[in-house]
């Protein structure tokens, strides 16, 4: 199995509200007996997940039972040949006629064929021409009992329920990859032409649908997991809701619903690989009618040139990276611009700065979109009798606890504040970050002064003689305002100061930020000019800015203009704050204009001109007087820094940024570069799989390690109980991680929790619950595991742990949402307690601390063992590295 299949599903949790749009349509079998399944009348305890497999297996002896049910339940014995579609048999006949073999011969012969070459004398072409409309678009199986139609209007393609040699059935593969969620059974299938939908609410998302059989009658009812499974009114009916089972089990539709093609049918079918499926699905996005054959056409599916270890020169470097950035940008744009939503309910407010703020819930069907403060959205109203059409662009200033988006509008005029319903929102995609990466690569290539010669050759992987930086060394390597450094931290600071390029590897809890701040302190004292400090994320920049500021250095934190309204823990260090609060008399004119602008919303054009010029001058003055400038990597490309030069650059969390992103701060004149990170933790997030495959997901830090630059490793961790640091130390850090905390310092008293081994601060809780695909179709959940998470949380709370000490981590957004809902619905204690417990994804927990961590792994299935093992290991690697377990 190839590992790409995993890319289908989330690798790390991504936002997904789980509130997919439901269509409300009537279910067509209410009160009737169409869903009468004679074979289920047996007294077996039906249906639990394992039983359903058994039942499905036993039902194969009475294959057409559901069809029989609609007429009479006595006719159980349609023969297999009848069940097979006439089309499928006729293609066998044709093939047999052509080859002159019996069926066995055909099977053997076809198995070895590539179906591209079947354009033979009688014009038979597999997958084309006379091929049935309802044939599986992947493999060609066309037995009506085995295929379903994707019910998305723009798609309407048919797929079968066989796995072939992939991990999920073809229909499930399609639904997941295309992000489609509705299906319709074939008219000649046992159940007839039926759109699968929830009996109670009409929801058609097959990833949410499951079934239960009534207690007394032999009727099966389809019900959705959210919300209907939890509707109290339904609990009183004749159904045992605890027996609910999803319609898709182990990435395959249940067999009583959609049959799996017989082995013979599967052998006759086209053998399509997971990779081909990926490619054809990709192609369908731009050409919905494309056939598999089209993949062979030149230019359709060219993989970009992969990244290299070494490059001739910066032009070659640019030639490799520029197309990858373009791919990622195009993907990002397509994804974000497809996120428009209509019929929003909006409430209006006014911010402290007197700007209009709109609050609304922005349901995201696609869990790839993650809104962050600073994102730009366009809010629209199409108008009515009393209101003209209106639209305004604004910036997201926060996401509330109720998962509302707060959007600060740019223009306050004409806002239809008495309208609360029927508004629409679009994502406004901006190319800024991608443009800056492209710009940095160009500068790197054409501007000889962009970096020193040594850095230039080193980054390209050329052999260069190592040299030391001649700088006066401090006598002490610690810095004022920071904790005392340990030996490995001192070693790091000392070495870094003497080298033109260094890598610092900071495993969790080893004081990476303190060490970085100490390095910056000493560099700033060397008189080489201002030091530039960057990181890919705003959170990391803020943390570092705060620590550096604690040493007494003058720090200016430059935020993107779109984030100026976003609250920050280091607001006093931000440039926009300092401009506003610079209290000198010569600035009074700027202040006056600012005040006027705040009050009136805008200035006359001459005042505006004067205001802008004054503001720019003040910004420059403040920035120039700083010892250290802090901003994100992309922020280093801000026009406000265009004329600045930085000889010394430190990039924190550099292992989470792409190479071109790292280059943005470097091309401002770097002579001495320090990359801090940990390549054993999460890498950069690349949305476009093609670009990721080509190597865009590899950071510069990682490539330099491959080139032989040895990272200096911080070796003493202060976070975890020694028993917990043992595994990551041995598995990822060659056993070098030492403990700066003792067992006793990590012992809590008075907490009565039934640890299986009292002095081991961890245990594995194994359960047999099955994974289910979540509502988005691209994530997973595990209900049994969620129930057990609640039990553990409740036990902790009962024994005196407070909610803020507990963190629940899961790699799957589907599970995250389910646990939050489950705890607030079923938690044994006060609801508020559960609301205060943080349930989050692995990456959003990276770098943070909790006393107790519960990790919900979710995955559990029968089919993917071979494939799944490495995934599990990979997850453990990610998890252990970013879990900050102190208990
Ligand atoms: Zn579809
Ligand atoms: Zn198929
Ligand atoms: Zn429902």
From TrEMBL:
GO molecular function per UniProt: ATP binding; DNA binding; DNA helicase activity; hydrolase activity; RNA binding; RNA helicase activity; zinc ion binding
InterPro entries cross-referenced by the UniProt entry: DNA2/NAM7-like, DNA2/NAM7-like_C, DNA2/NAM7_AAA_11, Helicase/UvrB_N, Helicase_ATP-bd, P-loop_NTPase, SF1_C_Upf1, UPF1_1B_dom
Domain of life from the UniProt record: Eukaryota
UniProt-annotated location(s): Cytoplasm
Keywords from the named record: ATP-binding, Cytoplasm, Helicase, Hydrolase, Metal-binding, Nucleotide-binding, Zinc, Zinc-finger
GO BP term, pick one: nuclear-transcribed mRNA catabolic process, nonsense-mediated decay
Region feature (Disordered): 1-92
Catalytic activity: ATP + H2O = ADP + phosphate + H(+)
Helicase ATP-binding domain ranges (all copies): 493-625
Upf1 domain: residues covered: 128-287
Residue spans of biased composition, Polar residues class: 1-17
Keyword presence, Nucleotide-binding: yes
Pfam families: AAA_11, AAA_12, ResIII, UPF1_1B_dom, UPF1_Zn_bind
GO cellular component: cytoplasm
Biased composition (Low complexity): 49-73, 81-92
Annotated spans, C4: 198-228
Family: Belongs to the DNA2/NAM7 helicase family.
Protein name per the record: Regulator of nonsense transcripts 1-like protein
The organism's taxonomic lineage, starting at the top: Eukaryota, Viridiplantae, Streptophyta, Embryophyta, Tracheophyta
């Amino acid at each position: 199995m190839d590992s790409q299949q995993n890319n289908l599903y989330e690798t790390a949790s991504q936002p997904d509200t789980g509130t997919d749009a439901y269509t409300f349509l009537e279910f067509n079998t209410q009160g009737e007996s169409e869903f009468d399944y004679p074979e289920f009348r047996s007294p077996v305890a039906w249906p639990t997940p394992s039983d359903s497999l058994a039942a499905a297996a036993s039902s194969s002896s009475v294959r057409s039972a559901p069809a029989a049910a609609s007429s009479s339940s006595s006719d159980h014995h349609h023969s297999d040949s009848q069940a097979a579609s006439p089309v499928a048999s006729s293609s066998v006949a044709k093939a047999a006629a052509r080859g002159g073999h019996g069926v066995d011969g055909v099977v053997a012969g076809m198995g070895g064929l590539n179906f591209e070459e079947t354009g033979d004398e009688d014009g038979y072409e597999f997958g084309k021409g006379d091929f049935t409309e309802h044939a599986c678009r992947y493999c060609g199986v066309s037995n009506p009992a085995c295929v379903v139609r994707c019910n998305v209007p723009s798609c309407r393609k048919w797929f079968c329920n066989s796995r072939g040699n992939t991990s999920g059935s073809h229909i499930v593969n399609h639904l997941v990859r295309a992000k489609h969620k509705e299906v319709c059974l074939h008219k000649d299938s046992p159940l007839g032409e039926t759109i699968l939908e929830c009996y109670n609410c009409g929801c058609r998302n097959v990833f949410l649908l499951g079934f239960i059989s009534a207690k007394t009658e032999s009727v099966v009812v389809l019900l959705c997991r959210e919300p209907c499974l939890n509707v109290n009114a339904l609990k009183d009916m004749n159904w045992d809701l605890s027996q609910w089972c999803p319609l898709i089990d182990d990435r395959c539709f249940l067999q009583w619903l959609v049959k799996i093609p017989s082995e013979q049918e599967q052998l006759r079918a086209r053998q399509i690989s997971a990779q081909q499926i990926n490619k054809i699905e990709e192609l369908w996005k731009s050409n919905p009618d494309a056939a598999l054959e089209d993949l062979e056409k030149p230019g359709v599916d060219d993989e970009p040139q992969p990244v290299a270890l070494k490059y001739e020169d910066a032009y070659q470097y640019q030639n490799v990276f520029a197309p990858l950035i373009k791919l990622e940008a195009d993907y990002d744009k397509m994804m974000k611009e497809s996120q428009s939503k209509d019929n929003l309910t909006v409430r209006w407010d006014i911010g402290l700065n007197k700007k209009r703020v709109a609050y609304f819930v922005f349901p995201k069907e696609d869990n790839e979109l993650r809104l962050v403060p600073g994102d730009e959205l366009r809010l629209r109203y199409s108008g009515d009798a009393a209101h003209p059409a209106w639209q305004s662009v604004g910036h997201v200033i926060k996401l509330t606890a109720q998962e509302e988006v707060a959007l600060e509008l740019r223009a306050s005029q004409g806002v239809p504040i008495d309208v609360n319903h029927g508004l629409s929102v679009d994502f406004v995609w901006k190319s800024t970050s991608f443009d800056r990466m492209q710009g940095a690569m160009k500068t790197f290539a054409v501007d000889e002064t962009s970096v020193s010669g040594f850095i230039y050759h080193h980054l390209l992987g050329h052999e260069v003689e190592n040299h030391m930086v001649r700088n006066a060394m401090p006598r002490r390597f610690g810095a004022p305002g920071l904790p005392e450094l340990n030996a490995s931290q001192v070693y790091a600071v000392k070495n870094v100061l003497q080298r033109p390029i260094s890598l610092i590897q900071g495993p969790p809890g080893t004081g990476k930020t303190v060490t970085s701040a100490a390095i910056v302190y000493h560099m700033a004292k060397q008189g080489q000019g201002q030091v530039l400090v960057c990181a890919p994320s705003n959170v990391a920049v803020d943390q570092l800015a705060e620590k550096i500021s604690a040493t007494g250095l003058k720090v200016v934190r430059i935020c993107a203009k779109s984030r100026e309204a976003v609250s920050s823990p280091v607001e006093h260090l931000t440039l926009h704050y300092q401009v506003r609060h610079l209290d000198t008399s010569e600035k009074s004119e700027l202040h006056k204009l600012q005040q006027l602008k705040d009050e009136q919303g805008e200035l006359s054009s001459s005042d505006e001109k004067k205001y802008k010029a004054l503001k720019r001058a003040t910004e420059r003055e403040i920035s120039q007087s700083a010892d250290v400038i802090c901003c994100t990597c992309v922020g280093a490309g801000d026009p406000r820094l265009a004329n600045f030069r930085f000889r010394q650059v430190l990039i924190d969390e550099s292992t989470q940024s792409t190479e071109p992103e790292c280059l943005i701060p470097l091309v401002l004149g770097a002579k001495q570069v320090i990359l801090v990170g940990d390549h054993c933790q999460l890498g950069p997030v690349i949305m476009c799989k093609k670009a990721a495959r080509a190597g865009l997901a590899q950071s510069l830090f990682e490539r330099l390690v491959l080139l032989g630059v040895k990272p200096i490793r911080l070796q003493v961790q202060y976070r975890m109980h020694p028993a917990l640091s043992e595994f990551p130390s041995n598995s990822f850090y060659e056993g070098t991680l030492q403990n700066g905390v003792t067992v006793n310092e990590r012992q809590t008293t008075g907490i009565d929790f039934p640890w299986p081994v009292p002095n081991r601060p961890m245990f594995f809780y194994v359960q047999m619950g099955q994974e289910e695909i979540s509502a988005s179709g691209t994530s997973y959940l595990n209900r049994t595991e969620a129930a057990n998470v609640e039990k553990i949380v409740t036990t902790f709370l009962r024994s005196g742990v407070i909610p803020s000490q507990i963190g629940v981590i899961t790699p799957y957004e589907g599970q995250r949402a389910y646990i939050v809902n489950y705890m607030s619905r079923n938690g044994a204690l006060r609801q508020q307690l559960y609301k205060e417990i943080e349930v989050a994804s692995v990456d959003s927990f990276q770098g943070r601390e909790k006393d107790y961590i519960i990790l919900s792994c979710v995955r559990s299935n029968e089919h993917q063992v071979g494939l799944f093992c490495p995934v599990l290991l990979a997850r453990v690697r990610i998890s252990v590295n970013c879990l900050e377990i102190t208990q």
